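Notes on consecutive records. When two proteins share a document, each keeps its own sequence and its own token line. Never mix them. Below: protein one.
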Amino acid sequence: MEKMLLRLPCVHRLVSDCIWTPSHNTQRVSLLRKSCRIAQRFSTASGRCSSNEGQNSGAPPPGSELASRQSLLSRRRRQLSPLERISSLLPQEVLSTEVEQLREQIQQQQHDGDTNIHRKRFMQEQSEAETVPKQEDLETYEAADAAEVPNMPPHTEETTDSPPGACWLTFGELLIAEYRKNRRVEFRKMFQLQAGSRLQSSWGVILHEDIAGHPAGCFLKTSRGVSIFIRRASLEDYVLYMKRGPAIAYPKDAANMLMMMDVTEGDCVLESGSGSGAMSLFLSRAVGSKGSVVSLEVRKDHHKRAVLNYERWRKSWSLHRGEQWPDNVEFYNADLCTASPLLSGHAFNAIALDMIRPHLALPTVLPHLYPGAVCAVYLANITQVIDLLEGLRCCGLPVLCERVTEMPVRDWLVAPALQKDGQFHTRQAPPTEEDETHTEAEDSANDGSSPAFGSVPYIARPHPEQMSHTAFLVKLRKYTH
């Protein structure tokens, strides 16, 4: 680098003047400053190379205290000026007194800055050592709090909003995490609370240990400071977010089928097409501990998935309820068309069919259905409905087709109208000649308080995200001659 600078005419002349005319100090300093602008690109590259070599040569091991302090000092250390870079390359005896005084002044300022950084670092460590308790003291303090409140687990804050008998979130439960922004759900996830795990999202991370011990329906902040709503998963949430094999019977269709069949506690219901186990769970809750459900699935992988989903929900439900979910569903891996020996001796109050060709299985199951009872059929396409009705006509089965229906669900967005600055819009009456004063709603809006009741207009429109077609439901009722 020194040879490269000497090749420049301006620098070569500067060095010559510094050697042969030592009496002209002012001219040497001015020439030295002019040469800095010419050699700035070379000095910058040299400074970077030398700094990298210095860092790699004697760098302490990463993670040590010395490495962290050196990295802190290197980040706060300012860059050298071109005058300082070129003057450091010249011999000491050729520098003028003004340049030497300038270098000493800069070195003193740098030394004072390093001293202040060390002093601040030391005072920060002392304050942390005084305020942060030891691990043994922290564990003793938490254990003492847990002993004073026997019904409350550690890390739990007692809230006045929770009524007596509220159950806290415990490990093993199925929870729902939600984040809403601008009246829309940006993030929703079902997860099982487990020790050592964490909830990950694009808005940050929450440790599962920080969730356990809180009441259901609480807001917890992520590592990025975003509030996430945590609640227990309902049966509707579970069937929508559980792991699936085939498509499920959606809650809106399952509820309508339960109304069609008029299922009550203590009934015995036959289901064909277990699938992922959604309809089995709804039937299990409807019949209760006194009833029973017989569920058949022709595919082995779907049968296994339905059993796993059923057992997972029963385990999570019993954790916060304190009692067992009724074990009233019997799963079989069998074909309903050839399952006459399996159904012998059974009589059913209702039948739910979720099959591709249900008209082939009706001659097998109708003898086991009580007269006047209902068989609800879940079909995806209208062509399947036509095939079903044509099969009933040809076979002459004693059933009446009462209804063929589709259950559309239309969500709406209803919210108060907001301005661009986030304030509420207010209704304004048409101006009159007699009344020139502002209304109470306008005065309250100007004061920054909440507008009065009935003064805020609302927007109401269909939600942009709608559920499309899911299935056709056919209601068949058995009659006697």
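Protein two starts on the next line and is unrelated to protein one.
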Amino acid sequence: MATSNESVVVSGGLRIRNQKTIDINLLCELCNLLLLDPIQLLCCGTRLCRWCSIRGVPENEPFTCSFCNTTQAKKQAHADRGTVRELNMIKIECFSCSWNGLYNDYRIHLEKEHADFECIDCHKRFYSTNLYQEHREEICEYRCVPCGLPGCTELIKWFDMGAHFLSMKHQTILFKLTTDICTRKKHTSDTANPFNVDSNIQQELMAINENMDSIPSAVDNSLEDCKRLNSERDHIQTKNNDILPQGKEIGKELQSGNEKFKKCMNGHTETEKQIDDAKNSRWPTKPLVLDMNDTITFPIAKQPNDINTPFSIQTPEFCTSSWGYKLVVRVCSTYISGEERQEYLSVYVSLLRGNMDSILVFPFPYDIYVSLCDQSKQKKDIVSVIKTGDNVSAFNRPSSDRNNEVGIVKFCPLKFLKDPESNYLKDGVFFIGIFIDFLNMEPKLV
């Protein structure tokens, strides 16, 4: 029997230490734990763990939702990819040990350190009860299941079920069961009308004779069909012999054309590479440095029509000073599913490995203010802050080329850039400003 550590995982979802700090929309409506493989009911948008949905929401037809009482022909649900993206961005503390990190890393951590559920048949280990139950009931090839044939009481390994069906014991029970059913039916028929047995047999013989009379004509028709098909086969064979030389010539031409096409594609790829190099060359090759106001501003080229398609743009690397920290910014669009589709401009910051890290203070201690610049005279910039104290792991001394990025998912609605009269997108360019608060001035947020 599997052993379990209930301090790690309970029911369908994942149990975590910092659950009170997590958005309630990322918790399962049934088990009230962090969602695991989330799905969404289409009738009301309720989010559930996939296994909680299978076990806790019946598949009755017609289906009546227990959350919104809506009645449908059948239950309709789909995998919630938007929620998966949100889960991948939250910080999690392990309920059983001192580990902390992101959602995907937490699942890997549980699999390595807390896989306490073991299948008794194949000895595969699992870190959650729902994954263990699904494996035991639907996936494990070594699980034992009953035969299902009345009179056969054996438990058979799932992978050996086919061999069992062909075994002598199973076939004997099946033959006996079939014989008993036929005997009962015949007995019932004879008991219901015992005086018509001879007449029934005579009627069956007459029907057989009528069918036999029709066999010769059917055979003649079949022979005629065979002759016709043979004639058509010979005709097709002759056409194939005529077409075959032409096909060889066409094949040679196609091969020659493919070689020319490959040469053209190679030239096209080289041209695209040159174009990309030319586009990238608009950014300076040397790392940029904050100005005297501890600020740096990046122009982001984006036409209004391009805002409607998903995008992700990374700025050049920049330093807080010639001997300071090295960072980089990524600006992208984010689409959050729900009852109404919501679109946001997101901004993320990553701390990079720098030449002066050995003499700098870590974790990076200064708050980072991000602004979308108003290009009108009103100067109503949209400003938000990334508190480094809330994301310590992302601002530790980099042990690789760059730390995990951290940022603001819902920095501002994308409609601020889509609006034809937008004050933030002018002539196909908007500006993202970065201010490092070295003096703890805490500028006013708009």
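For the record: Residues 1-10, 194-198 have pLDDT under 50 and may be disordered.
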